[in-house]
Amino acid sequence: MPSLIVADLGGVVIRIDPERSHRCWAELSPLSPAEVAGRLFPDEVYEAFERGQVSGPHYLAHVRDQLRSGADDAALAACFNDIYLGIDADVLDTLAARRAAGSRLVALTNTNQLHHDHWWPRYREPLGVFDHVYLSFELGARKPEPACFQAVLDAERVAPGDAVFIDDLPENVDAARAVGLAGIHHTSAAQLSNALEQLIT
Predict the structure, then answer these.
(1) How many CA atoms does the CB half-sphere of 173 hold within 13 Å?
(2) Same domain membership, residue 22 and residue 11
(3) Domain span holding position 47
(4) pTM of the model
(5) Residue 123: what pLDDT?
(6) Which residues contact 145 (CB under 8 A, 6 or more apart)?
């Protein structure tokens, strides 16, 4: 079993639905949810926000401009944060069991200051199972950028071959494998448990 398990949060440990944000923003603009998604995701300013390169007010001003909306920052931020549906307890239990068996467990998530200020107070207690939570906006890099994975390996003082990375997005798993980590494309708690079990044998 790898000495270090690195798990994504949104889409793995925390259940999310980004379309909730698209629908909410559409209600504040003349755009449809699909048009909102097309204008803002993917988006260079959003990615810069997740690297900590722009501020929350700067990002919300960009959103307001793209939406052609007159909504204030509070309304835009409320929509932005309306994606979190709670913790997947089965996934968290699976990871906690591996930690109890001796692996160090950390999280690596693409996020930004606005999102973090929203989900961290809500989920801080269950996320206490992680030995550390690495945030893209603090690292200055985001998945699938190699620098993001390397920053975690350097901080943990672990060689790539001694780590496994878990994510719901195949492109992030592929990027981690390119750096040398084992990779698991997460689809369910049962699948994750089986994949981790195979790493032991």
Answers:
(1) 12
(2) no
(3) 18-80
(4) 0.95
(5) 98
(6) 175
